Amino acid sequence: MSMLLVQALNGLQFGVLLFLVAAGLSLVFGVMDLINLAHGVQYMLGAYVAATLGVWTGSFWLGALLALPVALLVGLALEWLVFRHLYRRDHLSQVLATFGVILTVEEATRALWGSAPQTVLEPSGLSGGPLGGVEIVAGLIYPTYRLVIIGVGIVVPLLLWFLVERTRAGMLVRAGATHPAMVSALGVDIRRLFTIVFAFGAMLAGFAGALASPIFPVAPGMGDTVLILCFVVIVIGGVGSIRGAFIAALLVGLLDSVGRAMLPDLLRLLLDPSSARQTGAALASMLVYIVMAAILFFRPAGLFPGGRSA
Fold this sequence. Notes:
Blueprint: H1 2-32, H2 39-57, H3 60-81, H4 91-113, E1 133-137, E2 140-143, H5 144-166, H6 168-178, H7 180-185, H8 190-212, H9 222-237, H10 242-267, H11 273-298
Helix pairs in contact: 1-5, 1-8, 1-9, 1-10, 2-3, 2-4, 2-8, 2-9, 3-8, 5-6, 9-10, 10-11
């Protein structure tokens, strides 16, 4: 039970990171109808920038905060240079162009930081001592920093929901997703709206990368696996739905973490240890996609279809 509890917390923490990336991706697709395969590189750049600025400033938190405007500026630059020319293009053109962005940015990352993975230490004060862990059950200490990420995962979705549902800017975003021509006719600069949404999504992905840098190795290509799972999150939750992205991200995070840890042990009840370990590892890597297929069989539009709206 202790192992199950730890893996459930790990799943929630991973789900939170997936949501931060998937929320921006869902907003971009929901509002702009743009398939952005390069969204994962924003996650990677957020991790690299936070790691570098954390070393320069001597503070992880200051480095993570400074990574936000950097991710925003990179998003604005990419939107101006590449993505605004793709809004009226078909999805195949978008896929090919954004794949080219992935290759370009990853090679630039290797040129700047090298190919070797970088290790980022957890924030001082949360990596050891009395604040380094929390005793969740008797004799079981869970890292405080991972609990902080889970806490962020509660606050950010609430702020994002308030921004989209209860502010004038959110009203324009929702209206621009469903009736862009009408919004433009009312005097709203729809291109500027698209730019703001894209840059905001890039900043969320960069923020996720900054938070993930002390947990996962910071290396070129680290956003690729996350991007694939984020597309799974969007498909399960419903394209364009922030609420669906949040629930689906937690579901995917829990399935991935708990499945990889528990399936081999459960299969030992039916198979010999060697076969159980091999079969469990194979099934664990497939579990998320099996669940996605099952959900789509009963709900083809996802759990909370947004109809290109948040």
